[in-house]
Write a structure and sequence with these properties.
single chain; alpha/beta
Length: 276
């Protein structure tokens, strides 16, 4: 197992990390293993990663956190932008004394992970992107209206679930704005250059079928946009194409995600040995 050159925490830690006008609920298993920071889906929580973490086991340093207004403890904020989400990665790693980490992101978190890896080539061991960060122009005005309508309908029952941490403490417009911003960031002209500049190992784990709000074969068309990225950037590969859909991938195909993490960490170790 490759070792991280940052200071290792000998014991696990759970607490709040202040950032900007808010604070994030963070869990760090500690130990000397490779630090892996998990980036959640747009409105998901750190609990979604429990199967991946269990599959990888105790030889790794697992760092999970709930984004702003997500989960049961992370606080509300005046800023739910994508740039705030990228800043939060740095804030969590700095608070835990980690300089280099392997980022693993699902859905929205995959886009955050791609941006962070692109911007921090010296700090990223690599990235595993789980059914997200596909450069495709899926957002148009009709889709934006569908998104706003969907979240307004969902907002009728979401307050009932908020005490459980299963839904964010954000209103319908805030959630829709976040999703629409993701659509803009996912356009080929916006995300393509980000992926092209990544110089660390990246493995995608790609789902099958549809996701919430999609129609027909929309999702498969979006995933197909990855072909051109792989043709341009030799650091990026598909680690696995799995049978489960977007929403179930971390529940049903967690072994494939864990295997991709192992592969990326191994590639970083080989690269370090080549530099000696």
């Amino acid at each position: 197992m490759p070792m991280n050159n940052a200071s290792a925490t000998s014991s696990s830690w759970t607490g709040m990390v202040p950032v900007d006008d808010t604070a994030l609920a963070v869990t760090d298993t500690g130990g000397p293993g490779v630090p892996v920071v998990y980036l959640n889906g747009q409105f998901a929580t750190q609990g979604y990663w429990r199967r991946v973490i269990a599959e990888l086991g105790t030889g790794w340093r697992h760092i999970t956190y709930d984004e702003r207004a997500r989960g049961r403890k992370s606080k509300r904020s005046a800023d739910y932008s994508f740039e705030a989400a990228v800043r939060d990665v740095d804030a969590v790693l700095a608070a835990r004394g980690v300089h280099r980490a392997l980022v693993v992101g699902w859905s929205y978190g995959a886009v955050v992970g791609a941006h962070w890896a692109s911007r921090n080539p010296e700090r990223a061991l690599g990235a595993v992107l789980v059914d997200g960060a596909f450069p495709h122009d899926w957002l148009d005005e009709a889709m934006a209206q569908r998104i706003r309508k969907m979240f307004r309908r969902m907002n009728l029952f979401m307050p009932l679930l908020r005490p459980t941490g299963l839904t964010p403490r954000m209103n319908a417009d805030q959630m829709a704005d976040s999703n629409i911003e993701l659509g803009k960031l996912s356009r080929e002209r916006a995300l393509g250059p980000v992926l092209d500049t990544i110089t660390v190992p990246v493995r995608y784990v790609v789902a099958s079928g549809t996701s919430l709000g999609s129609r027909g074969d929309e999702q498969e068309q979006i995933r197909a946009s990855l072909d051109a990225v792989i043709a341009r950037n030799p650091h990026i590969r598909i680690g696995a194409k799995v049978a489960s859909n977007h929403g179930a991938i971390l529940k049903k195909d967690f072994p494939a995600v864990a295997e991709a993490v192992r592969e990326v960490a191994g590639l970083d170790r080989e690269d370090a040995e080549d530099r000696r």
